[in-house]
Amino acid sequence: MLEKKMKRITDEDIIKHSLSSKEFTNLNIRLLDSDTRIEEGDRFEVIFRGIKEEIPKVELVGNTMNVEQNIDESEDYIYKLNHRYDLGVEITVPKGTELDKVNITSLDGDIKLRKLNVNNLYIKSGDGDINVEDSTIHAGEIFALDGDFKSDNSDLISVAVQIDDGDADMKRMNLDSGSMNIIDGNFKLWDSHLNGKYYVRNSEGDNEVEGVKNDDYGYVLDTLDGDNVLFDQSRQGHLETNTRAKNIMYMKTMDGNNIVK
């Protein structure tokens, strides 16, 4: 294996480029080592902040904006910056835009979606956090190998989330069906609304729900090694209430606690 060359990066090496201002309805993003931010803005635009060696290739094919990054793996970089920069790829769409398909594959970097309306979302993240704010996602799949998932004030409709190593924190949500699967991490949901059936499955970690209470809500809790707390009830193994309700949350953990307040 060839030894990587080390390159020192200073403030003078940081550039900002507008890569495209063309309109699109679909996004296809493949990044190796950059953060991704997609949010509402004044216009359609793809912007990159970082070093020239990591500028992605941008191409509009039909209605799909393709953003792909290829990096010379023979070099590694040491950042010595005196100022803070929002490095990575930033994509903006005008207010009221409805994106049909958004596909993001990221090897290393955080992903943030803000004030978006997306019909179909697919995210696959190797190492980095995923954040969804003030958005409506009508269907999708989200996979995170190593990183946390956070969402605030958003509608997730038939969205399946899979986290291998990381926590899930959601607040002020509207959850319409969907699921959350965690191998090693904690799940927390508070001050939210539920429509239909939502499934939380956890291998090693706690599941906690607070402020999600309504006459039309039911809960089914299961744990192999831990406690179930359902409002004023507490029991190991299995605990349920209002299972004929229209809206039911199923919470299961193999090693951890299920808590509903």
Fold and architecture overview:
The chain is mainly beta. 0% of the residues lie in helices and 65% in strands. The protein has strands spanning 5-9, 15-20, 26-31, 36-41, 45-50, 57-61, 64-68, 75-79, 88-94, 99-108, 111-114, 117-127, 130-133, 136-137, 140-146, 149-152, 155-157, 159-165, 168-171, 174-176, 179-184, 187-190, 193-195, 197-204, 207-210, 217-230, 233-241, 247-255, 258-260. The strands form 2 sheets. It has a 27-stranded mixed beta sheet that branches. Strands 1-8 form a two-stranded parallel sheet. A hairpin with a 2-residue loop joins strand 6 (57-61) and strand 7. This is DUF4097 domain-containing protein. InterPro entries: Toastrack_DUF4097 (IPR025164). Residues 25-257 form the DUF4097 domain.
Q: Hey, roughly how much beta strand do the residues contain?
A: over 45%
Largest sheet: 27 strands, mixed
Number of strands: 29
Q: Which regions contain 5 or more consecutive residues with pLDDT less than 50?
A: none
What is the overall pLDDT average? Answer: 93
Number of helices: 0
Decide which structural class fits the backbone: mainly beta
Give helix and strand order, one letter per element, not per position: EEEEEEEEEEEEEEEEEEEEEEEEEEEEE
The gross shape turns out to be elongated
What is the CA–CA distance across the termini? 54 Å
Overall helicity: under 10%
Query: Over all CA atoms, what is the radius of gyration?
Result: 21 Å
Organism: Lactobacillus intestinalis
Protein name: DUF4097 domain-containing protein
InterPro entries: Toastrack_DUF4097
Domain DUF4097: 25-257
